[in-house]
From TrEMBL:
Protein known as: Receptor-like serine/threonine-protein kinase
PROSITE patterns xrefs: BULB_LECTIN, PROTEIN_KINASE_ATP, PROTEIN_KINASE_DOM, PROTEIN_KINASE_ST
Similarity field: Belongs to the protein kinase superfamily. Ser/Thr protein kinase family.
Region Disordered: start-end pairs: 764-788
Transmembrane parts of this sequence: 414-435
Top-level EC class as recorded in UniProt: transferase
Entry-linked InterPro entries: Bulb-type_lectin_dom (IPR001480), Bulb-type_lectin_dom_sf (IPR036426), Kinase-like_dom_sf (IPR011009), Prot_kinase_dom (IPR000719), Protein_kinase_ATP_BS (IPR017441), S_locus_glycoprot_dom (IPR000858), Ser/Thr_kinase_AS (IPR008271), SRK-like_kinase (IPR024171)
Organism: Hibiscus syriacus (Rose of Sharon)
Any single Gene Ontology cellular-component annotation: plasma membrane
Compartments in which it is found: Cell membrane
Positions bound to ATP: 492
GO terms for biological process, alphabetical: recognition of pollen
Length: 788
C-alpha cells in the first residue's frame, strides 16, 4: 500500500486499467452487462464491415453513438442513437447495459439520454451484438435467437439491406426513414419516407410528416418495381420483395452480390437516394434520386426565397431579404428561409401610411407556390386559393422598405403600391379573370398519355419566335423557351420527317414513356402538318462537348466528374437497350448528345429519333458534323444495326473523356493524330496510362480508374460487334463489380493510325479469338443478353 503513494505508480496503474478496458471492447462485436463503450472504444461486427461507437459529423463539436462502415475510407454513419441529444465529452459518457436490461447512453452528468426502452426478465444475461449486416441487436443471452430490440426496426436516415420499412395494420402507422437536419446535424429533419398508410403498396415522401410531395407509385409484383421509379429496371444490385402479413405490410431488399456496398438514404435535400460505394474513386456514387428535380421538393428553400434549377446554389433569397441563418445555409439547410434586410415602415410606426413609404419591386419569372399570402397595400393580406395558377403568367411584386430602392423616386413603385392598397380583393378577382383569359389564348396544351400536345403558336410564343438557339444537328435545331408556368424548356424543330400524323404521334408516345434519371425527359410535342417539334426539359449546363473540348486556358472538367458522366451515360444507354418496354437503339452517341443538368449529372438526349426520322436517318448521320468519328464499321457494311453500334460510339466517346480532345486532330505539320490508337498501344504494352490523360488535369486521376476506362473503350470499339460488351456490362465494369481484361488492338485502329488521311468508313473488320472477352467473370457474362 505504501507503494501506491508513488504518483508515477498510480499513473501507471490508471493507464493499464484504461488500456485493459479499451481492449475488452475494441475488436469484439458484443457488449455484455459488465462492459461499456466510452471515448474512442468501438465494437466491430464479426465480418469487419460495421463499427459501433462515438462519432462526430463534419466540423461539429457534438458526439453521437452510431454505426458506420468499417471498410470504406469515408466515415458514413448508417444509424444514430441519440439524434436529438448529443454529448460533448465522450470520455465521461458511456453506452452500457443498464440494471433493467436496456442498452442506454449515459452522459457526463450521469443522466440517461437514450435507451432501447424494452422490458427484460434477466438483466445480467442481456447482450448487445453488432451483426454483419449493420444491425445492432439486443438479446436475452448470447444463445438467444429472438431479439429483444434491434436497430433495423428503428431506422434513422439510412435503409440498409435486410431492413424493412413497414406499415402496422393495427395502428395504421408507418416506420419512417427521416433525413438529417443538415450535413453536420443528425437530428430529425423535415423530410421522411414511409409506406403509404392508404395501403396502396407505394412509398411516399412527406414534408414535416404532413405534406406529401412524391410517391413511388404502386408496387408491380410481376415486373418487381415501383410504377414511377423506372430506374429500378436497371436492377442488378438489389433484390426487392414485398410481404403482407396479418399485422403488417413491408418491403425489404437484399444485395445480389455481398461484395457490393450500397444503401438507400433519405437525404437532407428532401430526396430519397440510392448510392453505391466506388472504392476506386473513394466516393459514394449516386445511382438515382427522387424527386428527380431538386425544386420539386416541397418548401426546400424556406420562406421568402426562390428555388432555381438552372444553376447552383438552388436556393436564393428574394431581393431585400437575406438568409435567416447563414450557418445553416452553408450546410445546405435552407428550411429557415430568409428574412427582411430592412424592416417595413409600417412595422416601425403603424400610424404611417404604407403606400407613401414602402414600395413594390417587380420580380419576373417566379412560379408561386400553391397557396401564398399576397399583400395589397398597408396591413391587408388576402389568401387566394390556387394562387399558383392565378398568377402563373403575372409578375410577382415584393413589398420592400423605401430605403431598399435607389434614392431617385420610383413613381411606378409608388403607383403600384397605392393602387394595390386601394383595390384589395377586387384586384385579386380582376387578375384571376384576365390571366385565365390570357392562358386560354396563349396556351392550352392537350394531354395525350403522359405528354402535352402543344400548338405551334404556343411554342412560337414560348421561344420568342425561336430566337434563342441552343444548338443544332442533322435532326434539327434546338431553341430555349419559357412556358406560362415559368418552367424553362428546350424545343427541337425536327427536320426530314416523312411520317404521317398517326405514326408520328404513336412513335412520340413511345418515347414519352421512357423515363430514367440519365435520360432527358420528353415533356410534349407539336404536330401540325409538316411542323414537327419536341419539347424537352431544359438542361442548364448544355452539352458535354462544350465542357470537354475547351481551350487550354479554360477550367477543365475534373476527372471525378468525367468518370461520373461516363458512368451515368452508360446507365442511360443500358436502360434504353435492356430495360425499357420497347428497346431503343440510339444510333448517334456523341458528346453533343450528352446534356448536363445543374449539378453536371449526364442526360442522354435525342434517343428514339432514329425511328422518327425513318429512311432519312442514314443520310442525316453521314452529313451530320462530328458524327462520322463515332460510327461503328457495320454502318456501311450493309448488316443490320444492333445495340452494339451504340456501344462502339460510346467507346469512341470514352477516349475523348481521357484526352479532353477530339479523337482525330491535325497537328502543325499537317499529320493526323488518332488518339484511340495511342490508348490501345499503351494498355496492351503496359505503357504509362497517365501519359494519355488530358494534360490540363496535371495527372490528377486514379490510375486504376484511368486504366479501366481505357480498357473498356478499347473493348467497345472492337471491329466484330460480338466481341464488344453490352452496356450493362460496361456499367458493372465502371462500378467495379466486374474486372476487365486487356483487350486486343482492333485492326481498324491500326489501319487508321497508318493512314494519314484518317479514313473513317471501312468495310473490313478483324476477328479475334472468341474466347477473348472484356470480363473475366464468367457467370456475369453468361447472364448478359449479349455475350462478349
Amino acid at each position: 500500500m505504501e507503494n501506491m503513494k508513488n504518483p508515477w505508480l498510480k499513473l501507471s496503474v490508471l493507464v493499464f486499467i484504461w488500456f485493459f478496458k479499451s481492449q475488452i471492447s475494441f475488436g469484439a462485436d458484443t457488449i455484455t452487462a459488465n462492459q461499456s463503450l466510452s471515448g474512442d472504444q468501438t465494437i466491430v461486427s464479426s465480418d469487419g464491415n460495421f463499427v459501433l461507437g462515438f462519432f462526430t459529423p463534419g466540423n461539429s463539436f457534438n458526439y453521437y453513438i452510431g454505426i458506420w462502415y468499417a471498410k470504406i475510407s469515408m466515415q458514413t454513419p448508417v444509424w444514430v442513437a441519440n439524434r436529438e441529444t448529443p454529448v460533448r465529452d465522450i470520455h465521461s459518457s458511456e453506452l452500457k447495459i443498464s440494471d433493467d436490461g436496456n442498452l442506454v447512453l449515459i452522459n457526463g452528468s450521469q443522466v440517461e439520454i437514450w435507451s432501447t426502452n424494452i422490458s427484460s426478465t434477466n438483466s445480467r444475461s442481456v447482450v448487445a451484438v453488432l451483426e454483419d449486416g449493420g444491425n445492432l441487436v439486443l438479446r436475452d443471452g448470447p444463445s438467444s435467437s429472438a431479439p429483444l430490440w434491434q436497430s433495423l426496426d428503428h431506422p434513422t436516415h439510412t435503409w440498409l439491406p435486410g431492413g424493412k420499412l413497414s406499415l402496422n395494420k393495427r395502428t395504421n402507422r408507418s416506420q419512417l426513414l427521416t433525413s438529417w437536419k443538415n450535413s453536420e446535424d443528425p437530428a430529425p429533419g423535415l423530410f421522411s419516407l414511409e409506406l403509404d398508410p392508404a395501403g396502396n403498396n407505394s412509398y411516399i415522401i412527406r414534408w414535416n410528416q404532413t405534406r406529401q410531395y412524391w410517391s413511388s407509385g404502386p408496387w408491380d409484383e410481376q415486373s418487381r418495381l415501383f410504377r414511377d421509379v423506372p430506374e429500378m429496371r436497371l436492377n442488378y444490385i438489389y433484390n426487392f420483395s414485398f410481404h403482407s402479413e396479418e399485422n403488417e405490410s413491408y418491403f425489404t431488399y437484399s444485395l445480389y452480390r455481398n461484395e457490393t456496398t450500397s444503401r438507400f438514404v433519405m437525404h437532407y435535400s428532401g430526396q430519397i437516394q440510392q448510392l453505391s460505394w466506388l472504392e476506386s474513386s473513394r466516393q459514394w456514387n449516386l445511382f438515382w434520386s427522387m424527386p428527380r428535380q431538386q425544386c420539386q421538393v416541397y418548401a426546400f428553400c424556406g420562406a421568402f426565397s426562390s428555388c432555381n434549377e438552372i444553376g447552383l446554389p438552388f436556393c436564393r433569397c428574394l431581393r431585400g431579404f437575406h438568409p435567416k441563418s447563414e450557418a445553416n445555409w452553408n450546410l445546405s439547410d435552407f428550411s429557415d428561409g430568409c428574412e427582411r434586410t430592412t424592416r417595413l415602415q409600417c412595422e416601425e410606426d403603424p400610424n404611417l401610411v404604407t403606400g407613401r413609404t414602402n414600395k413594390f419591386l417587380e420580380s419576373p419569372n417566379v412560379k408561386l407556390p400553391e397557396l401564398m399570402a399576397v399583400e395589397f397595400g398597408g396591413q391587408n393580406s388576402w389568401i387566394c386559393n390556387n394562387i399558383r395558377q392565378i398568377l402563373a403568367m403575372a409578375e410577382l411584386y415584393i413589398r420592400l422598405a423605401a430605403s431598399e430602392f435607389p434614392s431617385s423616386s420610383n413613381n411606378n413603385g409608388i403607383i403600384i403600391g397605392a393602387v394595390a392598397g386601394g383595390v384589395g380583393l377586387v384586384l385579386c378577382v380582376v387578375i384571376f379573370a384576365i390571366l385565365r383569359w390570357m392562358r386560354r389564348i396563349m396556351m392550352n396544351p392537350k394531354v395525350e398519355g403522359s405528354l402535352l400536345a402543344f400548338g405551334y403558336r404556343n411554342l412560337q410564343s414560348a421561344t420568342k419566335n425561336f430566337s434563342e438557339k441552343l444548338g443544332g444537328g442533322g435532326f434539327g435545331s434546338v431553341f430555349k423557351g419559357t412556358l406560362p408556368d415559368l418552367s424553362i424548356i428546350a424545343v427541337k424543330q425536327l427536320e426530314n420527317i416523312g411520317q404521317g400524323e398517326k405514326q408520328f404521334r404513336s412513335e412520340v408516345s413511345t418515347i414519352g414513356t421512357v423515363q430514367h434519371v440519365n435520360l432527358v425527359r420528353l415533356r410534349g410535342f407539336c404536330s401540325e402538318g409538316t411542323r414537327k417539334l419536341l419539347v424537352y426539359d431544359y438542361m442548364p449546363n448544355g452539352s458535354l462537348d462544350a465542357h470537354l473540348f475547351l481551350e487550354d486556358k479554360s477550367e477543365p472538367l475534373a476527372w471525378k466528374t468525367r468518370y461520373q458522366i461516363a458512368l451515368g451515360t452508360a446507365r442511360g444507354l443500358t436502360y434504353l437497350h435492356e430495360k425499357c418496354r420497347d428497346y431503343i437503339i440510339h444510333c448517334d452517341i456523341k458528346p453533343e448528345n450528352i446534356l448536363l443538368d445543374a449539378e453536371l449529372y449526364p442526360k442522354v438526349a435525342d434517343f428514339g429519333l432514329a425511328k422518327l426520322i425513318g429512311r432519312e436517318f442514314s443520310r442525316v448521320l453521314t452529313t451530320m458534323r462530328g458524327t462520322r468519328g463515332y460510327l461503328a464499321p457495320e454502318w456501311i457494311s450493309g448488316v443490320a444495326i444492333t445495340a452494339k453500334a451504340d456501344v462502339y460510339s460510346y467507346g469512341m466517346m470514352l477516349f475523348e473523356f481521357v484526352s479532353g480532345r477530339r479523337n482525330s486532330e491535325q497537328n502543325e505539320e499537317g499529320k493526323v493524330r488518332f488518339f484511340p490508337t495511342s490508348v490501345a498501344r499503351a494498355i496492351t504494352q503496359d505503357g504509362d496510362v497517365l501519359s494519355l490523360l488530358d494534360p490540363r488535369l496535371n495527372g490528377d486521376a486514379p490510375v486504376d480508374e484511368l486504366s479501366r476506362i481505357c480498357k473498356v473503350a478499347c473493348w467497345c470499339v472492337q471491329d466484330d460487334e460480338t466481341h464488344r460488351p453490352s452496356m450493362g456490362q460496361v456499367v458493372q465494369i465502371l462500378e467495379g463489380v466486374l474486372e476487365v481484361n486487356v483487350p486486343p488492338v482492333p485492326r481498324s485502329l491500326q489501319v487508321l493510325a497508318d493512314n494519314s488521311e484518317h479514313i473513317i468508313f471501312f468495310t473490313e473488320s478483324s476477328s479475334s479469338p472468341s474466347s477473348q472477352t472484356p470480363s473475366n467473370t464468367s457467370n456475369a457474362s453468361s447472364q448478359a443478353k449479349s455475350n462478349t
